[in-house]
Write a structure and sequence with these properties.
four-stranded antiparallel sheet, 35% helix, elongated
Amino acid sequence: MEKREAMKKYFAPYPSWASKAIWWGLILIPAYGLGLLIIAFAIYAIWNHFNGNVSDSQIDVWTEEDLSKLQARALEKMGTDASELVAEHVIITGPRFWDSGGVHAGFRDGKDGVKRFTPVGVTIINFTQNQLLSYSCAVDLTTGNPINEATDEYFYKDVVSVQTQSKTHTLSSSSLPQNLQGTLAGFISGGQLQLSAAETFSLTTAGGNSMEVVLRNDVLNTLGQVNIPLIGRFFKTQATIPIVRAEKAIQVVRKMLRDKKSA
């Protein structure tokens, strides 16, 4: 299966209607076999959802391929040559399906307990002699295209804080992709989706400017879960979004700041 088509199948939503159809089919079995037909069709839909998907590890390999291509684009957007860099760049990733141009958003709980998703919010930080250069975008894994690109720069002397912290983010429901409107309906109030206590990577300057990347949140962790009614406890999936990249990025950025400020 071609890479992008495989990505689309991997992130296709679980057919929750099929789970309910099985129980309706059981009720309707006495009705001249109609129930058996419904059950068979529902089981096929569930089987097709899981069958033929590429492995979680293959998705990771393809995702890394897409992310690796962004460094050159980041330098181009910043108007910076690689010869100006004084250290290896760092990449921070997190979910970024809001304000993403209406692309299809997908979440999937891997067998390894890791939640994978598309689009992927990406922030690349490059280091020059005097500045941190930031490039951010959202990568649609089903196409490989970066969207909503933005750049910024911060002088080392101005940076006062680099950390992960819990912070509330409020999103307009109109900024969410259409395919998640129903899934997130229970979390939306007054046209707003509130991500309370979302783990966030942040870099703040003395002037109050900041860079923020949402890493994970309890609401986001529910997306992509599979739960079959009545027997859900046997099939329910539950995975979390890892924040290893952000933690490594903090260590690198803090070391660079210490080196630059002590020079």
